[in-house]
Inverse folding.
């Protein structure tokens, strides 16, 4: 039934004619302005136009009459492209022929090859200029970039032969972009999927931050991110789009490779992924450029005056479009153009061969070039290019537009022959049996062309460099100021850290390097004391009077502000941390990020990004504020962190510390700055601090190395007054206060000598013991690790931590037999600190009880004494196990 509310055709035509007159006699910009005004007016009347602007237009954004000529040698570039495609396929096929099961991906690059080549030949700038571009490559297309570098004679045949064979061969190539494994080539890890988009946004934003602070000369650097359409389902892919438009990041370009397929099948079989993405990005304020159809369509679109073809394309789901990707001309004539008389007339003058050449814009060099040119020239915010491609493009029977193409790793000889013929690779049938690579001679026109293009664009890509920079350490007085302790005043390690950070921001060697990053918990952690001093970064400054204006802690935004207050997004904060912690790979300048997060919202929330940060060789400090299961009263199950340090055990090249005293915090941060920025070690320092108030002691002499190594004796036992068996109490972080109280009870009430040990890092102890045990095993040595040097086999050791017991148990194999651990296994609960510590059995009374019980078990204490303490200190039988909640 016809829509009774639809306006009549004559009135509709009047509106269209009016719009056409404005475009022809005024300008497109003026037409856009009028449409915007109409949209505003419609919204004022409650008319919902959401999605109408983009979803119905499945056509190219840039019309044929707007295009400029392609500046390159298309014939030459196509010969280069065919060689690259061949080597990308052969790299995967050869590796899996030699070693079945190695894997690899061919079809993603097959769909993206043209997008890469136009960028590499004409747009992406290298390191040798004043404005090097930053590129986040789509991870699954890695074989294609290796193939490009091979054809360019930047990689050799041994390297690409050893694709995904990194252990067997020193020159083996990693599976995906991994700077940790290939530091001179890859700059950023983009697998797992979704990590590339969010990193790119915050990298572009960080470059603007440096520009506003006048700390960089790179004004024209662009950040490019190549993404897959299936990847856009990841929350990280689209979750931060708004910040890019809000801060007008005109240095950011996304290219979404819309090949319509993910691993298992269509991305949106019943809908249009391109239209959906256009709506999402335009709604977030991005400039959207759609590259949907190739040049062969231009004349057909021009003849589609009735809009019949546009209507059919807008209504045809991706599942059908995927099938048409490999349809013959006769099939297209029947299935697409045979739907009505208007479409039949459009196709009537075209032969089947001509119809078969109707293809996708993401494989048309002219269309791609013009999209890139428009994106680079756009100055009003971020740009996304939605490029329509075919997954497995050119692979034919070996996986083109097939739902299983993602898993295509092996090729039969017949498939290889077919691919060779399509690409016109000059290899014989006999040569194909050896899975050969193919490239042009170094003095060929093709290689000269690549080299000249990259010379014009100022250096080869992909490439990663660490810029030399003469870094000067901060004044030693900053760190020594914590040696004297706090005297009679109580303090917290959280407060000590904030005091230290404030001092670093004033230091002449450090002020311009420090980048404080926090996801909306500044006041909780005490960073608000710096709001007025250094300001919160906002490119627009502060265009309002804050409600707390005039107060010492007022919310102060500046376009040259130092603090990056991200809002409630740990993922965004971590992405900024990566941007800052890798900036020395962009220019000769270190930025030192301090990412401060609240409670458990670190490893638990953004573990994947932390792993990516270590892969990227990021340097910087992660500060876990109000850390530990029992240090955060009232907040309960989803806040209290009893597992952060356990997670940290799994992360290589990460140093994890849980200091108990202010001087320990200072020693650790000084060492971190020295190792990361003077010695240039690619590490991340994870340091937990807490809000437990107690008197900060003076630093004992000679303990610095112990603090760094993870263990030192804070107080030796006094054995002169008694012959009782000595007990060693091990404490760290917030629970050290309980350990000190327990030691006092044991000494004063029971005359038991106690040595108190500060465990600043269980991870350091574990790493040291693990590596030492391996060395002793393989090289038949008898070296002792840190804990074995500290304790003898007959010692009694009680370790108490605000983290789960698995953390101190990680070193159990290298501790005495009498080694008992107390921890906070189970969910957090809402209550006071004292109640929480008693519930989790890590308070002073449970530490004393555990020590007495172990003395009893080893024959060093009477049962009478044990029972008396149990009755006096509420150590009850039948108490609920904390893990049962």
């Amino acid at each position: 039934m016809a829509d009774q509310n639809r306006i009549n055709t004559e009135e509709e035509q009047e509106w269209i004619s009016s719009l056409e007159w404005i475009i022809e006699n005024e300008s497109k910009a003026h037409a856009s302005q009028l449409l915007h005004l109409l949209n505003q007016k419609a919204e004022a009347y409650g008319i919902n136009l959401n999605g109408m602007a983009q979803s119905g237009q499945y056509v190219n954004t840039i019309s044929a009459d707007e295009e400029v000529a392609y500046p390159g040698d298309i014939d030459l570039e196509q010969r280069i492209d065919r060689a690259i495609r061949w080597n990308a396929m052969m790299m995967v096929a050869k590796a899996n022929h030699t070693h079945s099961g190695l894997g690899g991906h061919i079809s993603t690059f097959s769909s993206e090859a043209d997008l890469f080549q136009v960028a590499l030949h004409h747009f992406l700038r290298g390191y040798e200029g004043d404005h090097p571009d930053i590129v986040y490559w789509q991870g699954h297309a890695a074989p294609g970039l290796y193939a490009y570098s091979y054809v360019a004679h930047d990689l050799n045949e041994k390297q690409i032969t050893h694709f995904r064979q990194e252990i067997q061969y020193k020159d083996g190539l990693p599976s995906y972009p991994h700077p940790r494994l290939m530091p001179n080539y890859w700059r950023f890890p983009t697998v797992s999927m979704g990590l590339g988009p969010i990193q790119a946004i915050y990298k572009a934003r960080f470059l603007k931050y440096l520009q506003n602070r006048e700390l960089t000369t790179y004004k024209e650097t662009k950040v490019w991110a190549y993404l897959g359409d299936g990847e856009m389902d990841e929350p990280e892919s689209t979750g931060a789009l708004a910040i890019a438009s809000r801060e007008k990041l005109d240095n950011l370009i996304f290219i979404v490779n819309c090949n319509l397929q993910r691993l298992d099948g269509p991305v949106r079989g019943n809908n249009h992924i391109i239209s959906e993405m256009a709506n999402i990005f335009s709604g977030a304020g991005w400039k959207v450029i759609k590259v949907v159809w190739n040049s062969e369509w231009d004349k057909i679109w021009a003849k589609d005056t009735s809009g019949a073809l546009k209507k059919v394309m807008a209504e045809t789901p991706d599942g059908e479009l995927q099938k048409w990707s490999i349809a013959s001309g006769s099939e297209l004539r029947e299935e697409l153009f045979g739907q009505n008389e208007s479409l039949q007339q459009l196709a009537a003058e075209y032969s089947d061969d001509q119809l078969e050449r109707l293809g996708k814009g993401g494989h048309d060099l002219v269309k791609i070039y013009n999209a890139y040119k428009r994106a680079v020239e756009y100055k009003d915010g971020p740009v996304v290019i939605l490029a329509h491609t075919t997954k497995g493009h050119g692979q034919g029977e070996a996986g083109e537009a097939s739902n299983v193409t993602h898993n295509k790793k092996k090729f039969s000889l017949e498939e290889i022959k077919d691919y060779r013929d399509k690409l016109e690779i000059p290899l014989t049938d006999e040569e194909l049996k050896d899975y050969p690579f193919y490239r042009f001679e170094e003095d060929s026109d093709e290689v000269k062309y690549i080299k000249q293009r990259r010379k014009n664009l100022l250096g080869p890509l992909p490439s990663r460099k660490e810029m030399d920079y003469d870094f000067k350490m901060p004044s030693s007085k900053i760190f020594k100021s914590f040696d004297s302790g706090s005297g009679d005043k109580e303090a917290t390690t959280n407060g000590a850290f904030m005091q230290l950070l404030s001092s670093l921001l004033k230091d002449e060697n450090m002020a311009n390097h420090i980048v404080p990053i926090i996801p909306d918990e500044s006041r909780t952690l005490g960073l608000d004391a710096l709001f007025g001093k250094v300001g919160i970064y906002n490119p627009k400054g502060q265009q309002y009077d804050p409600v707390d204006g005039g107060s010492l802690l007022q919310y102060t935004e500046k376009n040259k502000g130092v603090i990056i207050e991200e809002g409630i997004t740990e993922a965004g904060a971590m992405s900024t941390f990566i941007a800052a912690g890798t900036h020395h790979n962009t220019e000769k300048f270190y930025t030192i990020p301090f990412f401060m997060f609240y409670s458990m919202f670190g490893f638990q929330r953004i573990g994947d990004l932390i792993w990516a940060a270590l892969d990227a060789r990021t340097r910087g400090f992660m500060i876990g504020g109000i850390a530990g299961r029992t240090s955060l009263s009232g907040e309960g199950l989803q806040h209290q962190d009893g597992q952060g340090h356990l997670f940290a055990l799994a992360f290589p090249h990460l140093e994890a510390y849980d200091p108990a005293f202010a001087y320990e915090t200072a020693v650790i941060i000084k060492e971190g700055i020295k190792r990361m920025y003077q010695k240039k070690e690619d590490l991340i320092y994870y340091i937990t601090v807490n809000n437990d108030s107690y008197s900060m002691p003076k630093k004992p002499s000679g303990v610095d190395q112990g603090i760094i190594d993870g263990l030192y004796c804070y107080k030796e036992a006094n054995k002169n007054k008694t012959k009782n068996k000595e007990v060693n109490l091990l404490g760290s972080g917030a629970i050290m206060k309980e350990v000190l109280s327990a030691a006092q009870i044991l000494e004063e009430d029971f005359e038991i000598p106690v040595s108190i040990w500060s465990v600043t890092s269980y991870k350091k102890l574990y790493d040291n013991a693990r590596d030492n045990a391996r060395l002793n095993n393989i090289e038949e040595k008898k070296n002792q690790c840190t804990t074995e040097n500290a304790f003898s086999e007959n010692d009694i050791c009680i370790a108490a931590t605000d983290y789960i017991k698995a953390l101190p148990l990680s070193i159990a194999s290298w501790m005495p037999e009498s080694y008992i651990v107390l921890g906070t296994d189970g969910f957090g609960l809402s209550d006071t600190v004292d109640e929480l510590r008693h519930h989790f059995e890590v308070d002073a009374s449970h530490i004393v009880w555990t020590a007495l019980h172990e003395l009893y078990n080893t024959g060093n204490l009477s049962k009478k004494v044990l029972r008396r303490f149990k009755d006096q200190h509420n150590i009850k039988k039948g108490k609920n196990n904390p893990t049962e909640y």
